[in-house]
Design goal:
Length: 325
């Protein structure tokens, strides 16, 4: 092929690529959720999918690719064609997986393009209805007296409730018996039924049970009290003695590594528009969530945040000695 033909071919390919990018998206986008339908991440993803539909002008299809603490769905996106049509919504587990799993088929954040943080979600320490403790002070005394006999449930290795439970035990300088479940629903069912004692669960899941007086409430994990009516009088854990205790379960949006820059820019712009949607904000606030409005909406800042969280949680997980194969 002559130099002239090569030049013409390059121009044709570049023109075709530019046209394809200019038309993005021209078909539905798949939003992978690495957890079961009905859980907090799934609820957040479905609300986001609806809000993204408007600025992108396309249907967003939610795909629940569950298993192994969110790593199966994450791996699916890491291996996907980097064209912007397969995205991932993941929570804090994105940053903790490298420490929890000795054998991980992808690298965090190297195998992903960070698109921006979505929200932050505080958790609530809740207990079975038959617990004699009626305040955090009483709960702390009860835990001190019972030690490892205390059962603390979670939704599985790497789940938000698992990570919050680790931090809670670390702050109390105690070791409880951790009881992992295959999801939030069965863990909550056993907590309500009294088969386990405690759980540190996201407000989005805990609030309905608190409203129904099915569980006892001892404290929220954010530095400020939550404005939700049922929790407005519930103190923060920092207020009641666990100084500076702050565990926020954040969610972020990701694309496969190598997704073209113009597509990433389009997706980031759509995310910003979605997070400014009054309807989305209303839904998030009703669940006790705070929509991110700071510089972590910037892809580079989002990446730095994930790196910092990865380092933070690596120490907590190492100290607890909790790993998966």
């Amino acid at each position: 092929m002559t130099n002239t033909l090569r030049c013409v071919a390059s121009l044709v390919l570049a023109s075709a690529a530019s046209a394809a990018l200019a038309e993005f998206p021209d078909r539905p986008i798949t939003l992978v959720v690495p957890f079961a339908a009905g859980g907090p991440t799934d609820k957040i993803a479905r609300d986001l999918a609806e809000a993204l539909r408007k600025p992108l002008g396309q249907t967003i299809v939610v795909d629940n690719a569950i298993g192994a603490g969110g790593t199966i769905g994450s791996a699916k996106v890491a291996r996907a064609t980097p064209d912007g049509y397969t995205l991932l919504v993941h929570h804090i587990g994105m940053a903790t997986a490298p420490a929890l799993y000795r054998k991980l088929s992808y690298k965090v954040p190297d195998d992903f393009e960070t698109l921006g943080l979505i929200n932050e979600a505080p958790s609530v320490v809740i207990g079975k209805p038959s617990l004699t403790a009626n305040s955090f002070a009483e709960l702390r005394q009860w835990i001190a007296a019972n030690g490892s006999k205390v059962n603390i449930a979670n939704a599985g290795l790497g789940s938000a409730s698992h990570l919050c439970g680790l931090m809670f035990q670390n702050a109390l300088k105690t070791t409880m018996t951790t009881v992992p479940y295959k999801g939030t629903a069965p863990a909550m069912t056993d907590l309500i039924g009294g088969q386990v004692d405690l759980m540190c669960e996201q407000a989005v899941n805990a609030v309905p049970q608190i409203e129904g007086k099915k569980v006892k409430t001892y404290g929220v994990t954010s530095l400020q009290r939550l404005p939700l009516p049922v929790l407005k009088d519930t103190p923060t854990l920092s207020e009641v003695g666990l100084k500076d205790f702050n565990v926020q379960v954040w969610h972020g949006l990701y694309a496969p590594k190598g997704t073209p820059a113009p597509v990433l820019a389009r997706l980031n712009s759509a995310l910003r528009a979605a997070l400014n949607d009054p309807e989305l904000i209303k839904r998030e606030e009703a669940l006790g969530l705070t929509v991110v409005t700071d510089d972590r909406l910037d892809p580079a800042s989002h990446r730095k945040f994930v790196e910092a969280e990865k380092n933070r949680w690596a120490k907590v997980i190492k100290d607890a000695g909790e790993y998966a194969d």
